[in-house]
Give the backbone structure.
Amino acid sequence: MHPDSATGPLVAALDIGGTKIAGALVDSEGRLVARALRPTPAGPDGDRVMGAVDEVLAELRAAQYWPAVVAVGIGSAGPVDAAQGTVSPVNVPGWREFPLVPRVSAAAGGLPVILTGDGVAMTAAEHWQGAARGYDNALCMVVSTGVGGGLVLGGALLPGPTGNAGHIGHISVDLDGDPCPCGSRGCVERIASGPNIARRAVEQGWRPAAGTEPTAAAVAASARAGDPVALASFDRAAQALAAGIAATATLVEIHVAVIGGGVSAAGPLLFDPLREHLSHYATLSFAAGVDVVPAKLGTDAGLVGAAAAAAQALQLFPTTA
Ligand SMILES: [Zn+2]
């Protein structure tokens, strides 16, 4: 992509996950004017992973618009610690309290670096360019292999002291529920993530079509065909998400819940029961009537959001409608 112009200043954005490390130069209108991508090296060698980040940054530094870059924004799989500048992504075993911020700053010629969790970054993107645009109080969620999220309150992104605020996936909605890998019980993620939708269906006798894997997408296909076990598994996931959204609405008064990630592709199979359950959990006047809508930005949300979070933190350019 070689656009003829970019509206500056620019932010170099990094989206770091367990499978890929994406980079882009993002202009003040949210356009991606240069891109770079590397697979995330597997295994315990943290320096190899950093090597891939260095390659992405080197490619961005060679781009035409690099001289207009004034900061780097990173959205990373969590947990992150923005206060310490370190990351410990569950699915990047080579990085535990890895000093990502100073390493990236050095590789980017000393530019300021703003780190947030990927849920917060997705929220910044949806608020700037997507389904939460125009809302001053929003919860955005990613429902995928895990469940993450972030908050916009009073018109501003709320990353929290360490960049993890709004992590709705690990709020307990089932006090004596199944143990969650995080150490708690009955978390939203333990009930509503894609792998848990599939696991629950399998436990209750559902089987995927011959030759296909037991994924949430396969459960969704069966549910569309009317399979009662598949429908029940989606309904239970929707119920957990509704309880989490209701808790958030009651705690901080949100007006919209934006849901993205692979599981949200199930569409009405997820959203219809979710809205129904929400009407029973969010009952007080100030918590009722939350709009529940699908996310608008696709795979670029992490990059756009990492740039938006940096722009807001450093007051580079406005990222609200
Ligand atoms: Zn948990």
Q: What stands out?
A: Residues 170, 180, 182, 184, 187, 189-190 surround zinc ion (CB under 6 Å). The mean pLDDT is 95.
